[in-house]
Amino acid sequence: MSILPASPFQLVHNPRVDRIGPYGDARRERLGGARFLQAQAEIQSWPGYARTPCVALPALAARAGLASLHYKDEGARFGLGSFKALGGAYAVFRLLAREIERRTGVATVRAQDLTSRRFQEITSSITVTCATDGNHGRSVAWGAKLFGCRCVIWVHETVSDGRIAAIAAYGAEVRRNPGNYDDAVRRAAQTAAEQGWFVVSDTSYEGYLDVPRDVMQGYALMVDEALGQVPDARALTHVFIQGGVGGLAAAVCAHLWERFGAARPRLVVVEPVNAACLLESARHGVATAVHGSLETIMAGLSCGEPSVVAWEILDAGADDFMAIEDEPAADCMRLLAHPVGQDPPIVGGESAVAGLAGLLLAADDGGARAALGLGSASRVLVFGTEGDTDPELYRRIVGRDAASVRAGGRGTPGAGEVASP
Length: 421
Ligand SMILES: Cc1ncc(COP(=O)(O)O)c(C=O)c1O
Known about the structure:
It is a single chain. The protein is α/β, with parallel strands linked by helices. The chain contains 18 helices and eleven strands. Helix 11 links the parallel strand 8 and strand 9 (266-272). The longest helix is centred in the middle third of the chain and has 20 residues, at 210-229. It is globular and about 65 Å long. The protein starts with 8 loop residues before the first strand and ends in a 15-residue tail after the last helix. The model has no long low-confidence stretch (mean pLDDT 95). The structure holds pyridoxal-5'-phosphate. Pyridoxal-5'-phosphate binds at residues 82, 84, 133, 135-136, 202, 242-249, 300-301, 303, 351-352, 385-386.
């Protein structure tokens, strides 16, 4: 019996992947090395820091014909509900530290200096801004509140009221822009230029590369934690990771490549079929935008333009790209809530489970299984990048709320629906 109901998917191997060369100093200077150590020390010093769990799912692994499967569950990250807490807030910190250095010459600013409001006169005069489909904006708004600056967040047409309220709860001003995520990115950049605000974007474009690198450097902490939590990180054979603009996937790719070189696990990037800009980029051998509504329940992955910085890394370091429909993501959310055998129940949001959904579809498909080298010796890691960041949508899809899932009640498997965004 198949694990998820059958659903069509696309699978593209990256013919340019460098499986032999080391990560290299040129890349390390921009992402990794000392920059990672700095991000790690900084974020670990923040109030409320705790490693998120990396959960073994042996029954699901057995069902999928794999040796092991681990799910790094980011639902509890800093109380914000997603891994994005690591990136946007760290970039806000870095930006404020740079501005303070520029204006005062003090080059050693740490988080405590900002949380104690030592430089309040400077930080309170700074406004940070970004576009978001929810999670990144929440992180930037939280960082702005924690470190004491102003914050204006742009959301696109279909971002839910629940997600907007969650951002506004951190004191940010939230503005809605007509169009899709990419339109909101442009609006944020334009307003910032007019107003003298600072863009803290999770996506990069020509002329805007450094801040998104800080964002990705923050994400790398999640990868590092996971490698310390799985029983034998060197034995991992595959990592499946979801892609929006690609910043997350590139951070995962870079960290694995730097750490394990040619022996790194195979990296499969999974996107919604309506917003598969990374897969299309792999297909064309160049960063390629996809257009249209980008509609998907996987709100965090609803991005049509790859991040320039991210694509550079993925082009050279990612092995394969998949595009999936919405139904397998919804099915996967329900599967985690009503787990197989004795596996623990997990609350995974719409965007959290794309990597897992891609894995389970591929594991069930003879051709994809062979193409990806998945088999009974495979040890797989996936990143569950959010919890129920939109609680109402989660309840509609899973048929129960997160508290009831966590309490471990079995509920009715199959309840719930695939909701339109
Ligand atoms: C929960 C979740 N997972 C994955 C992603 C994808 O990250 P990226 O856009 O860096 O590819 C996002 C982006 O917002 C997200 O919110």
